[in-house]
Amino acid sequence: MQIKTTQQGHIAWCEPSAATLTAQDFSVDVWQAKAAVVGQSKGRYTTWFVKTDSAQTWVLRHYWRGGLIGKFNRDSYLYTGLKQTRAMAELAILETLYQEGFAVPRPIAAHVARSGLCYNADIIIEHVAGAKDLVAYLSQQSMDEQQWHALGQTIAKFHLRGVYHADLNAKNVLLAHEQFYLIDFDRGELRQPNASWQQANLDRLLRSFNKEQGKLPSLAFSQQCWQQLLDGYRSLHPI
């Protein structure tokens, strides 16, 4: 990761072609002006897919606050040091995991803009071609036992490395070409492996599947699917 100072803050990049990015390039308006926005993903807020001059597809995401505080403070965070900002911390953990061969999107760049004691931030990662999140996938088709087993093993590999995912849910798991990816490592950490937080991660994922199935009863998920996932997980990491 390399870092440069801007008029308002800093830009960090891992991808060489991102070295020339300016603070303005982290605004979707710039990409829209170039007719380079090729898609979007809507959750609590919109994430943008943009096409670069070198024909790469990147994912641009702004950091927004959620919950009650988000009603009064949409995107401002207390600045306690560059490494502690949401964007730089997420870019750093992605860079480590990507270099170690974990199934995560390739990190591209991050931007932090300061204003007094506070900051706001953005991150860019590479778009995983052909990927669907598990809610989108399971709303259209089912996964077989081998796939659920492989998903459990994927999560186990992250846990064995000590990867804590702060929001492990069905929408933060992608499937592309028979490969599972974990995305959105905001507030994620590399921790000492521990059965307590690892089990809490799994419990959160199960609640997510059940919640999504409550909204869409036809979602291809069952307790048998979950057991197959656990069997895969425990084949590598019994807890």
Structural overview:
- The chain has about 240 residues and is α+β, with helices and mostly antiparallel strands.
- About 30% of the residues lie in helices and about 25% in strands.
- It contains six helices and 13 strands.
- The chain has helices at about 30-35, 85-100, 135-140, 145-160, 195-215, 225-235, and strands at about 1-5, 10-15, 35-40, 45-50, 55-60, 75-80, 105-115, 120-125, 130-135, 165, 175, 180, 190.
- The strands form three sheets. Strands 1, 2, 3, 4, 5, 6, 7 and 8 form an eight-stranded antiparallel sheet that branches. The chain has a three-stranded antiparallel sheet with strand order 9-11-12.
- Strand 11 and strand 12 form a beta hairpin.
- It is globular, with a radius of gyration of 18 Å.
Explain the layout of strands and helices.
Elements: E1 2-5, E2 9-13, H1 28-33, E3 37-42, E4 46-51, E5 57-62, E6 77-78, H2 86-99, E7 107-115, E8 118-126, E9 132-133, H3 134-138, H4 145-161, E10 163-164, E11 173-176, E12 179-182, E13 189-190, H5 195-215, H6 223-236
Antiparallel strand pairs: 1-2, 2-7, 3-4, 4-5, 5-8, 6-8, 7-8, 9-11, 10-13, 11-12
Helix pairs in contact: 4-6
